[in-house]
Structures are given as structure tokens and as C-alpha cells.
Amino acid sequence: MIRINLLSEKKKKAISVPIGGIVVVLWVLINLGGLYQGIEMIAQEKEQYIEEKQISRLEREVSRMKGDLRKMRKMKQELNNVEQALSDYQGILSKRMGSWTRVLHRFEDFVARAKTIWLTQLRIDPEGQVQLNGLSMETETNQRNSENKKIKLVTQGVTDFVTILQQETDFVRSVNLSQVNHDFVDKKKVAKFDLTFVIDRN
Amino acid sequence: MLVKLFTYTLIMFVVTVVTFAYWLFNYKKPLEEEKLQINNKYKELLAKKEERSAIQAANSGIAE
Prior knowledge:
A: alpha+beta; 6 strands
């Protein structure tokens, strides 16, 4: 009797360990670790370099100086402006720039001191002969009336003005009040006057 | 077997080269460039500092 075993006998297969693959994977992991270290090293190196150069300290110093410099430039600009103005004034006041400015400055001073007069016309000829027309407004005098009140006069300003001119002996001579008329301007009493005198423009 | 060994070795070599190249071109080279820039900035800041110090010294009389 022949017996045939129809059931196939299972063969035990040997499990193959992919050593090569494992080694490659490990190698890749090692490489990745190395890459991470490399990146860290680069970052450290960069920080160290910046620290070594003291960039942030320099930046702080420069920015602080920038503020100081801006202030200084502003001050310098102001100083230049003042110097320019001074030089302009000196130029105006110097004789070389023309003596008319000085003359007009003197006139301005006289009128300011007389307080109540207005100049309406001023003529100065090359020889220094001055013809001046003006108005004098009412002002209190030191004189008192019977009621012990200060007297108001329109000619007081003219008197003061003439006195002022006569006191300026270095600049004005031959003061002559040629005419004084009483008049009204805007319903107010005024005295119109004409003056002639000679000025020394030197 | 020998071919397998060679293949694995080649793969490992390629992986190493690729990793190194990646690090070199993405980190090392930019660092060198950055160092150069930092150096230039350092020189520029130093020059500015010196210039401003000189101006301050020259103008110190004005502030007074």
C-alpha cells in the first residue's frame, strides 16, 4: 500500500535581517545629527563674531552721538544765523553802506522821545538842509490852570521836539521853527508845524 | 554580496555628500557673507564714530 501525503509541508523560511538597510538608515540619522550640530555651531559662531565686534555697543554709541550731533548742528545753524544778522546790522550801521540809515535812525529816536508828534514830510538835501513837516497832538503840560488841573497843549510836542533837536549839537544845528498852525484831524486838535535845520551826516 | 556592499557604501557616501553640501551652501556660506557684512558695518560704524567725535571736538567751543 502506497501512502501519499497530499498535505504540503510548510518549510520554515529563515528571516533575513536587512543589515545593510539598517546601517544606511543609521548613517542617515548620524548625518542628520551632524547637520543639527553644524547648524548650532554656525549660530554660535555668528553670535560670537557679533559680540567680538561689539556691534551693538557701537550702534548705541553712534546713535547717542547722532542726537548730540543733531543738537550741535542746530546750535551751529542758530549761531550762523545770529552771526549773519550781526554782520548785516554792522553793514547797515557802517558808513560805507551809506549814512542815510544812521540819519533815519537818529530821526526815529528824536520822534520817539518827543512822543506826541508825527512826521508828515521829510526832505533832506545833499548839503544836509532838512525841511520837516509834522503834526503834534494834544498833551498835558506841567503848567496848571486856576482849577489846579494840568493844561493840555497841542504845541507841547513841537516844543519838546525842538528842544530835543537843539540838544543834539553833534548832529543838528540851526534849528528854525518856521510855522505852527492849529488844526483838526479826525475832530481832534493838532498843531501842524514846519521845521528847518541842518544835519551833519558825517 | 560584493555588489550589495558596494551599493550600500555608495548610498552612504551620497548621503554624506548631500548632507555636507546642504550644510555648506545653506549655513556655512551665508555665515561667511554675513561675517563680511558685519565687518563692513563695523568699519562703517567705527568711521561714523570717529567722524562724529571729531566734529564734536571741533564744535565743543560753540556749545560752551
